[in-house]
Structures are given as C-alpha cells and as structure tokens.
Known about the structure:
With 535 residues, the chain is of the alpha/beta class. It has helices spanning 2-8, 14-28, 31-40, 45-69, 75-96, 102-109, 113-119, 122-141, 149-173, 175-184, 195-210, 279-287, 297-301, 306-312, 360-366, 411-437, 494-499, 510-517; strands at residues 11-12, 143-144, 233-240, 267-269, 272-273, 316-321, 335-337, 372-377, 444-451, 456-457, 463-464, 481-485, 505-506. Helix 2 packs across helix 4 (45-69), helix 4 (45-69) runs antiparallel to helix 9 and helix 5 (75-96) runs antiparallel to helix 8. The termini are far apart. The mean pLDDT is 91.
Amino acid sequence: MERSLKLLSREMTVTRLIILAGLVFLLFYNWAFFQKVLEVYPLTMKNAGFLASLALMLWAFFVFLMSLVCYRRTAKPILVFFLLLSSFAAYFMDTYGVIIDDSMLRNVMKTDLNESLDLLSLRMVLYFLLLGLLPAVLVMAVRLRPQSLRQAVKQRLLLSVGSLFTGVALIFAFGSTYASFFREHKPLRYYTNPTYYIYSSIKVARQELAAPPGDARRIAEDAHLPEEHPHKELLIFVLGETARFDRFSLNGYERDTNPLLKKEEIYAFSNFWSCGTSTAVSVPCMFSIYDKDSYSESAVQSTENVLDVLKREGVEILWRDNNSDSKGVALRVPYENFRSPDKNPECDTECRDIGMLSGLQEYIDSHADSEMLIVLHTMGNHGPAYYKRYPESFEKFTPVCKTNQLEECSKDEIDNAYDNAILYTDYFLSEVIALLQRNSERFETSMIYISDHGESLGEHGLYLHGMPYMLSPETQRHVPAFMWFGETYDEIDRAAMASKLGRKYSHDNLFHTILGLLEIETSEYDREMDIVFGP
C-alpha cells in the first residue's frame, strides 16, 4: 500500500490517469461480464483472438467515455464516484448474477433500510474496501501535472480519437464475429461495469423527468355500484413477496409446504405470470389499468389505479404493509405500516406477517355497512435472508442456510430455508381464511393471493430476482395465484372456476377481477379479463 501511494504520488497527466483507470475497470470490475462471455465463446485457439480484441475494445470504450468527462478538476471526483459505485455493482453481479438495469435501479431507489441490511455481508464489505475505497484513496493520492490549455486539448483529442479508432479497428478486424456478438448475444453487454448501469441511470432519469406533474389522471369516471346490491363484499387481497410457483404443494411440489391450505377449498391457478421480475414494477402494474405491454413507470405514476376507483365509489380501502411500502399504489387510500413493533404486535427478530391481522376484526366491525377491500402486503420470502422470514417453530426443513451470503450455503440449505418461509405463508393464508369465515354470514367473503414475482435459488448461477424480463428464467416470472370464496358467496360458479385453473392468466387480469368481485360497473371493466366472472 505504501509503495503504491509513493508511486501514484508522483506527478501524472490526466491522460495517463484515465488510461490506468480504464485498465483497472477492465481487470477488476468485469469478472461477471467475462464469465458470461466465456460461456458463449469458450477459451480456444479459435476464439483467443476475438476474446483478446473484446477485452481491448472494452478498455478502449472505458477510456473514450472517461475522456469526455475527466479533466484536471473533474477527474478525481468522477473516478472516485464510479469506483465506489462500481464496487457495489461488481459485488451484486459476481455474487448473485444480477444485472444492474433500470428495473434494478428502481428497486434500489425504493428499498428501505431493513431490506438493505439484509443484503449486508462480509463479502460486500471486502468488495467495497478492496474495489471501492482502496482505489479511491490511490486516485486521490495522485498529483496531476499542470498543463497548458494547448497541451491538454491536444492530449485529449489524441486520447478520444485514438480510443475510438482502436474500438472501430477491432470491430472491423473481427467483423463477422462481432456481427454475431452484437446481434445474437446482445444481453452480454448488460454485464459491463460501469457502462451499463450508467446507461440504465440515464434511462431512469429520462423517465422520471418525462413523468407529467400534478394529480393522477382519473379513470373509470362512470364507475358505480348496481342499484340492486343486497350483499356486502369483503375481499382480502394478499400480496405475496418473492414466492415461486413451484414451491407450493398445492401446485404439485413434492414437499408438503401447504398442510393447512390443502384442507380448504382453494382454487390454485397453474399458469399465472407476473408483470415484472421486481416489486417496483410488478406491484404498480398489477393494480393499474395498463397491461404488461403498455406499462411504463411514468404512465402508472400519472394515472389512478383500481384502489382509487373503488374508493371513489364508497368502497372502504385499507392497505396494511409488512414489506417496504406500496410502491406508490396506496398513496391516496388509508395505509398502515406494520414493519414496526409500535404497530405490529407479532415481532421477534423481525415483524411477522401474521401481525397484520391484529385488530382487523375490529376494523371490519366498524365498517360493516360498506363494501371492503383489504390489501395485506406480506414480507413473504424476501431474500436473500430467507431464514429470517419465519419464526423458529416453522423450521421444518433442515438444515437451513443461516446467512445472507447464499454462495456459502449448499443448494439444499437454501431450498430448506426458502421452503420454511413458504410453510409460514401457508399458515398466514389459513389465518386470513379463518378471519373471513367468521364474517361469511354478514358478507360475501373472498381471498386472493398472488405473488409479485418469483425467485432464482441458484439455478444456472442466478440468485434473487430482478433480471430483465426477456432474459429472466421462468422461476422469476411464474408465480403462485390462489383464490378462496366463502360458503355464502352464491354468485360464484365453482364448477366454472375449477375449469379455469389451467388457463393462462397474469397480473393484467387483477384490475378487472377486483372490479368484478366488488360488483363495480364501468366501461373500463373488461369481462374477458375477469378471472372469476369472465368466460
């Protein structure tokens, strides 16, 4: 360290600093990129020249980008900033195989402190110290040589043009291989660090700036309840978190992860798909009027959702949250945060989902003359600390992974911890049904459970979620979806429901299904999209 500081304390031009920084980014921050490249182009005599050219081209591209923004006064702060950020990006890409795209950045922006602490590990600290703090200190120790304006402009032109020419020459030298690389293996570039997260950050910023200001645009202004409406509806929507379709025994999983739900008349949909692979996308999407293809962050932010429509028509809405927040869905309806012992009576190492049922009967009693929709946003299977997601009494499958550093655990240990959290979800949903059963004489009661997205548990080297939708594995998109109806809910054609269990549905259907269950009539309602009352 002392030797490095003495070496770098000598005078150095900005040009030399940029060239060295580009080499450092290439060698130490792009292991995930080259690992993915080697999966497609194995290291053979045939591929050796192309792989060397790819490394040189990536270095030239880094140098070209930095030459545009790094000058004598800006070089140090800009390089330090990107070294620190890139150390975290490298950690998550190397450890979990994730991509830092715009969706992932939105997740980061909307992640609270508790979720961030779940991700903290010794390995993350080491990445930050060795790839972030140490090189940042070395950069700050550099003494930049003063140059005349003429010298600075001349060197900068040579650096910019030279790096750009190098990249173009390499592409022409290996033209046919690069044509295949860019056309058929486009996703590989998503792993470049820091270039792809810079691109994604610009994309997010443009989307945020494009979002129209002011109040949300009203939808379904013709919505109303029918004149003849003898029964009051009580619908509880349980918003699952990070639950995989294939880990519920109701869906055919060989382990009995649903010992309580299997005793109930549950309609389990086997072909249900998420709108996104992250909470920040899926939750606003599923409550919005937009389908997956027309969804955008700016459109959802500027438009009312189904909760707003229901509230306007006198439906009592309550959102209880044991997750981070509602991702903007519950901004205009009553919202209660159950992440704190001040509100949630069921807290040990963390506050439990079951605590959201506390006082709920009293709430129902106080609104007995109204239609009701209650949303319970669960902590569910939020990773990577799956072992924290359930009380000790639910640790049925052992041994379990007792750390958030999933790479230190075996596949069986990760699976066991994850399945125990599913077992706890089974208990929570059974308690929701018990609550509804106690109110079935006064209301037409129903429960919907749908997860926001799935999870990767080490398959193909991937962990967690948030991959770009087109690249994501099925485990991140195929989600569990269950429905339950009280015995007095006479309008439900149970035989018809049973015939729909294999049909393909998605988060797009939720908007219309909720309107249908609460009997809201509006031109925005599409009966074809209603899972319950549709064809």
